[in-house]
């Protein structure tokens, strides 16, 4: 009956209603997580100063790597799970779930322990200097030892959403966000501890979110069952390939942070890195908002693709793109109008830090006109198994084009070249998506007129 309940929801309700049922919890959950990140930055910046804030920003790629691991296997596994459920193969879906969770736990423990052995070299490789090293090191060491909590919590959240319970996934995100704010307030302002305690507080908050997710297993509509499985190389390969664009996206965040830290440190010193820390916290809010859109459509596109429901796939992506355009334009306008007050939230910084941050964010936010569309389309191609295009979108916007612009442009236009790298890369990638999608839809229409190919991906 549980499986039938999910099928009735996704098959019988209108596409717009199903989309909203997934979009609203995903967006709210991600938005609260983003607000939590910003408030963390505000509290650290106001209590411990801009150097401590820069240290946390330098160490943040470690946190991102753990999230990347969970999303890589979580999204890959959850996509296979939803495709199997859409095709009516419940036992196969449960095998995928059991296999994915086992891999996530084992891999995150191995990575965390290995990186901890090389922690001193790692913190300098991430861009720390003599000023920021104590803060970056203290935060990073805690994350390396206990980051596996994030991988399990985040991956389980993805599976719960794909099992037809986006509201509980949102509740777990809210629990994590609100408890993290409260815990870290006490750590910084009541007990007056340092950034290592802030890291411990975040781990504790993630553990509370995990407890919320575990209640899904008590529900009658739960299809997530652990079952014994045999080693399946083909299944592992499929999960890793499908989830690879998501891994690349998370690694790209680390590349984004590291490249901007290094470029701005070279051009403007610690003030430049501190300014980028402010921009990066604000960007995290927008990034997670767009990620919420992707999280909303992934279960739907995967399910419809598995069931061969081409019309519902098209309707879903059309609604999602329109939503992304509206959100991007609104966010751009908001940040442009309130750039200086937003920067001021993070502390009473020097005029140099404030000036760099305000100037940078006004240029940087142009990217939001294109970024939402790129996120949505990457998720679409990933969910239908068109991995080559999904990988291109991610690699081009977060690595290939962005790094090329950061390396080349500052020689001609100085610090402006760093700030404008992301808007330029996002715009170019969006153009390539438009060209490819038109060809993609033409090929599907041709196949359908021939009586075959419904539900097949472009790569297939």
UniProtKB/TrEMBL annotation:
What keyword terms does UniProt attach to this protein? Antibiotic resistance, Cell membrane, Membrane, Transmembrane, Transmembrane helix, Transport
Subcellular localization is given as: Cell membrane
Family, per entry: Belongs to the multi antimicrobial extrusion (MATE) (TC 2.A.66.1) family. MepA subfamily.
Q: Does the keyword Transmembrane helix apply?
A: yes
**Pfam families, A to Z:** MatE (PF01554)
Any stretches that span the bilayer, and where are they?
20-39, 51-75, 96-118, 138-159, 171-191, 197-214, 235-258, 278-304, 325-347, 359-380, 392-413, 419-437
Give membrane topology per the record. Answer: Multi-pass membrane protein
Q: What is this protein called?
A: Multidrug export protein MepA
Q: Which organism is it from?
A: Paenibacillus spongiae
Which InterPro entries does the UniProt record give?
MATE_fam, MATE_MepA-like, MATE_MepA_subfamily, MdtK-like
């Amino acid at each position: 009956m549980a499986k039938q309940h999910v099928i009735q929801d996704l098959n019988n309700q209108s596409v717009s209603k199903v989309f909203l049922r997934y979009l609203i919890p995903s967006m709210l959950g991600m938005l609260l997580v983003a607000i939590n990140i910003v408030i963390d930055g505000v509290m650290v910046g106001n209590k411990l100063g801009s150097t401590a804030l820069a240290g946390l920003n330098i160490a943040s790629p470690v946190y991102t790597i753990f999230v990347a691991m969970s999303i890589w296997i979580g999204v890959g596994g959850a996509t296979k799970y939803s495709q199997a459920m859409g095709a009516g193969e419940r036992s196969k879906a449960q095998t995928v779930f059991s296999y994915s969770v086992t891999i996530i736990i084992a891999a995150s423990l191995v990575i965390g322990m290995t990186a901890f052995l090389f922690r001193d070299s790692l913190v300098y490789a991430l861009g720390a200097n003599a000023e920021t090293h104590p803060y970056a090191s203290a935060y990073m060491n805690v994350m390396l030892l206990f980051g596996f909590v994030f991988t399990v919590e985040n991956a389980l959240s993805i599976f719960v959403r794909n099992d037809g319970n986006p509201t509980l996934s949102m509740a777990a995100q809210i629990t994590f966000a609100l408890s993290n704010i409260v815990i870290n307030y006490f750590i910084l302002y009541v007990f007056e501890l340092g950034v290592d305690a802030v890291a411990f507080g975040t781990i504790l908050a993630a553990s509370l979110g995990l407890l919320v997710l575990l209640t899904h297993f008590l529900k009658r509509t739960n299809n997530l069952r652990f079952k014994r499985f045999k080693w399946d190389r083909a299944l592992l390969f499929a999960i890793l390939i499908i989830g690879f664009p998501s891994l690349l996206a998370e690694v790209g965040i680390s590349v984004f942070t590291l490249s901007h830290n290094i470029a701005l440190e070279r051009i403007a010193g610690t003030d430049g890195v501190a300014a980028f820390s402010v921009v990066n916290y604000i960007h995290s809010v927008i990034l997670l908002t767009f990620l919420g859109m992707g999280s909303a459509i992934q279960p739907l596109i995967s399910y419809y693709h598995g069931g061969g429901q081409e019309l519902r796939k098209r309707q879903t992506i059309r609604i999602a793109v329109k939503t992304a355009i509206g959100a991007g334009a609104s966010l751009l306008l908001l940040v442009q109008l309130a750039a200086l007050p937003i920067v001021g939230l993070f502390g009473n910084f020097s005029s140099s830090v404030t000036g760099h941050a305000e100037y940078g964010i006004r240029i940087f936010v142009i990217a939001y006109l294109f970024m939402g569309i790129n996120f949505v389309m990457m998720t679409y191609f990933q969910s239908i198994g068109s991995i080559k295009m999904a990988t291109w979108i991610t690699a081009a916007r977060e690595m290939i084009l962005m790094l090329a612009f950061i390396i080349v442009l500052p020689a001609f236009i100085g610090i402006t070249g760093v700030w404008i790298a992301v808007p330029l890369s996002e715009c170019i990638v969006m153009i390539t998506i438009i060209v490819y999608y038109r060809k993609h839809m033409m090929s599907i229409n041709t196949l359908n007129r021939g009586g075959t190919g419904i539900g097949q991906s472009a790569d297939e």
